[in-house]
Amino acid sequence: MAVQINPSILSADFSRLAEEAKAVDGADWLHVDIMDNHFVPNLTLGVPVVESLSRAAGTPLDCHLMIEDPDRWAPAYVEAGAGSVTFHAEAAAAPVRLAREIRAKGARASMALKPATPIEPYEDLLPELDMLLVMTVEPGFGGQAFLDVMLPKIRRTRELIARNGLELWLQVDGGVSASTIERCAEAGADVFVAGSAVYGADNPAAAVEALRNQAEE
Ligand code: DX5
Ligand code: ZN
Asked: Where do the TM regions start and end (predicted)?
């Protein structure tokens, strides 16, 4: 499966979002972190900004919802133009129904696991999903250190996907950089979110290609 690099605009300059989106034109998806000050102790942006960004960015949007009650709010992000919508397993009341609704509205459906949430209870849900996100930091902030204790979970998730004969993508998010991406790829991840490692670089587009080359090795 081809490697995908998704820069996270959480580390971009929010006053110049369209320009910052265009600065990573070669990226596969633009990762948009939606935070509500309840599910995580931070607040970012919502549906109107996603709507504008989906028109302005030349890259499809991968919306990561770190919010309470995604069952109620996730469909609006599909309508706002997101190509992929990720809800958290810890927050969703009815994950199967929600994944089906996201897909029926025309986006890829994805579910995220916080570091302390195991994958095993969710094995039977995997066919309902297009992607699974294994968080490699506690969600809420960019620039945190990569939790290498998550590598076994990435490996077990990849094995579960293979054992069930599925093709869903396996995304990692948090602390992904030149010094950690190879371990993530080796453990079985194929979609890499990188915030500070891309937008903290002098040349964000070059940073995307450097990460891609490292992950493909
Ligand atoms: C954290 C967010 C991440 C964040 C990653 O809660 O979900 O997407 O932007 O930032 P870095 O790559 O700097 O750890
Ligand atoms: Zn994220």
From this structure: none
